[in-house]
Structures are given as C-alpha cells and as structure tokens.
Amino acid sequence: MPDYRIESLARYHVPYMKLLAKFTLVFLIVFGAGLALAGYVARQFLEQNAEEQVLQQARLMMENMLAARTYTTKKIKPLLVPVQNQNRTFLPETVPAFAATESFNFLKVAYPDYAYKEATLNPTNLRDRAVDWETDVINTFRNDPKKKEFFNKRDTPMGPSLFLARPIVANAPCLECHDIPKLAPRPMLAIYGTANGFGWKSGETVGAQIVSVPMSVPVRLADQGFRKLMISLSAIFLATLVLLDLLLYFTVVRPVVRLSHMADQISLGNFDVPELPSSGSDEIAVLGGSFNRMRRSLEKALNMLGS
Q: What's the number of domains the chain is made of?
C-alpha cells in the first residue's frame, strides 16, 4: 500500500502555500493602497500642523519681545533717564525697540533658525530700516489699521521663508524722541543726527515687528513626524498581516486543504481517511458536512456494486 500521508504532504504543500500566498498578496495590495493613502493624508496634516506649530512659536517670541518693550518703558527707562540727564549722554537701553532686538539676540542662541526685526519706515537707528518686502508688510497694516497680525510666505535666496508680523504704532512715549529734532534728547542727536527718525505722528503705523523662519524648519518637523508615523503604521500593518494569515490558515486554508486531500484519496479508492470536522454553522463547516455525507453515500454505493 502507498504511504498516503507522505503523498499528501508532497502533493498539497505547494497548493497550500500558493493559496495562502494569494491571500497575502491581496492583503498586501489592499493594505499597501490604504497605507499609501493614509501616508498622503497624514503628510498634508503634518505639514499644516508643523507650520502652525512654528507660527505658534513665533507668536510666543513676539509676545516675549512685547514684554521686553513694556518692561523697558515702565521699569528700565525711568531708572536710566536721570542717569542720562546727569551725564548728558544717551543710553540706547532706554529705547524699547533696542531692548527687544537685543533680548532676541540672546533668545536666538536657543532658536538659531528664527530672526526678529523691528522694521521701521523712518528709523533713528538705520539697522531698523525696512527693506522692500518689509515695507510691503508695513503698508499692509497702514492700509488696514484694524489688522493686528499678518503672516505669509516669501521666497529668499536661501529658500522659502515663513514670517509673522504685527504693527508698530507710534504713541506718546515714542514721540519723546521721534516728533521733531528740537524736542529729542540732545545726546541722541549727537549719536544719530537729525536726518532720520523724526516726524512720527501719534496713532500712525510706523513699522512692524517681524519674526521670520525658513520653511525648512516646519518641513523638518513634518518629516520627523511623518517618519515616526509611517514606521508605526508599517509595524501595525505587518503585525496585522501575520495575524490575518494565521487566522486564514486555521479557519479557511487548512480546512480546504483537508477537503482537497480527502477528495483526492477517495478518488484513488482510499476510504480509510477520517471524516472532516463539521462542527459550526459557517460555510466551511457546512461544506465539510456535505462532503462527509457524499463520501458515505459513495462508499455505500461502491459496496453495493461490489456485492
């Protein structure tokens, strides 16, 4: 008698692997398409989220600079003005814009990608003079006095850049130095002269606080988040694929292989193979029960013919 068990293993091992491979291929295609779509949507979301995160950091920096300006006006200037008058000198530390700019230079050590400028149309200190694109930003506020914040992107020689701006509006403390030259402190005139920084009007938008950051910063943040997300999703995908393959093997593939093996043995005249398990109400169990009945009927028919 031939060894049906060895024959079974040799004959049905490859078909079993082919069946499971087909299921795996289908899962790979479906999950791969879903992973690609999820990656695309996640990438868009992460880029927007990273950009908003950078803007929020810029707002915090802007608030920090506003706090430095207020602190200088209310606390530092009253202490230094008597010293100025006594020594007949001018201390730039009494100027809010100077204090804010210098404070940011210390902050820039921790955030080297960010830049801050108090761009002004007619400044006393020429380092604050607005360049062309900054002038456009200031004019945006001048044309719409109700606008309190403005952010946008612009192209630079180093690549795209994101900026956040808020208006600088002249008030009474500003006019102490920026009204007309004869009202300005003489030590200040000795340093900066009378050609720039005068003629400001109360309530007039004279400049803008601008925080700039290269777009490479939010892109880098988005890349980091996207990489972590895709690694996590891929790991979940592989774990799910393995779990599905195991479930398919025990619930579908193995019963089908047994059924195929039984049918082959019966076709060879071997009725000694055990019946298939038929417990349950799913399609595989029903098919197994039907095949068992067909096997018994066929065996009885062959016995009747033989007798």
A: 1
How far is the C-alpha of 205 from the C-alpha of 223, rounded, in Å?
39
Point out the least confidently predicted range of 16-30, 121-135, 204-218.
16-30
Indicate whether 287 belongs to any domain. Answer: no
Determine the angle formed by the axes of helices 96-107 and 4-71, rounding to 10 degrees: 150
- CA–chain centroid gap for 174, Å, is 42
Query: Is this model's pTM higher than 0.70 or not?
Result: no
Q: Decide if 275 is inside a domain.
A: no
Helix (H) or strand (E) holding 182: none
Q: Is position 12 within any domain?
A: no
Domain range holding 149?
A: 58-218
Beta bridge partners of 120: 129, 207
Residue 285 contacts by C-beta under 8 Å, 6 or more apart in sequence? 277, 278, 279
* Mean pLDDT (whole number) for 85-109: 87
pLDDT digit string, tens, across residues 254-304: 777 777 777 777 676 666 777 666 666 666 667 777 777 777 777 777 777
Confidence at residue 15, expressed as pLDDT on a 0 to 100 scale: 54
Determine the angle formed by the axes of helices 216-248 and 4-71, rounding to 10 degrees: 160
Q: Which helix (H) or strand (E) holds 78?
A: helix 77-87
Residue 192 one-letter amino acid = Y
Residue identified by tokens 């082959």 is 264
Handedness of CA 244, 250, 254, 255 (dihedral sign): negative
Indicate whether 77 belongs to any domain. yes
21 residue type, one letter: A
